[in-house]
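Lecture 7, part 2: worked example. A protein chain together with S-adenosylmethionine.
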Amino acid sequence: MRLDIISIFPEYFAPLDVSLIGKARRTGTLDVRVHDLRSWTHDRHRTVDDTPYGGGPGMVMKPEPWGEALDEVAPAGGAVPRMIVPTPSGRPFTQAMAAELAAEDWLLFACGRYEGIDSRVVAEASTRMPVSEVSLGDFVLAGGEVAVLVMVEAIGRLLPGVLGNAESVADDSFAPGAMESLLEGPVYTKPPEWRGRAVPEILLSGNHGAIARWRRDEALRRTAAHRPELLGRLDPGKLDKHDRKVLADAGFPEHGEDMAN
Ligand SMILES: C[S@@+](CC[C@H](N)C(=O)[O-])C[C@H]1O[C@@H](n2cnc3c(N)ncnc32)[C@H](O)[C@@H]1O
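Predicted complex, written out as structure tokens:
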């Protein structure tokens, strides 16, 4: 997969040389190209921002450097990347979106700063490539760089061969499939007792069916405690009697009541 990242702070992306993503770059699974937006400016101060039309505080990123950058990184008439623009006003980034983006051949990330990028840049880019405006969450960062690092890591670990154990993504929180919309429960490793705290007995039992049941119970309890709104997304048809009891005991009797129906 090819990834182009355009930013006024290319040095922000040093972490992409480390760990799983760094290895994926070295083995050629990921071809990451980081570009300095200022190399498409033409004045002495390498200006990328200007005051907002209509007034108000802050500055806005000028369209000209962005236009030239996109023309050069993704020239007209050639292959077309999918452009991702991080912005708090975008669609929420989710595991499902990470999986969707992991299936692309080429992604182009445009990192905003200040009050964001002149809106005509996205409008114009949309005429020649698919563009998605994506939010990392309901908070405001100083720039798109951290958001892009997060997305690249979430997408990159889904690429074939990047994780040592490909199965580990299947059990992740938000993984598609049986545990969809459930947070992952607690995990443990050796030693079996540490500072007087024992690992739950069931995990040492070797009884795979009972372990799977325990993990699901813990996932349901954790989801109920930390993200109760996710319970509404569970398919009632996939909740068995035991699931409903766990949810009712966790304070969600509406799921328990379904048991009687
Ligand atoms: C200070 S923010 C601009 C916020 C903008 N004025 C607003 O309220 O929507 C500067 C840049 O940080 C990035 N950014 C900030 N918060 C983000 C979030 N929650 N998700 C994705 N990108 C974000 C975007 O690239 C944005 O252009």
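The CA atoms of residues 93 and 136 lie 5 Å apart. The chain has a mean pLDDT of 94. Keep this in mind for problem set question 3.
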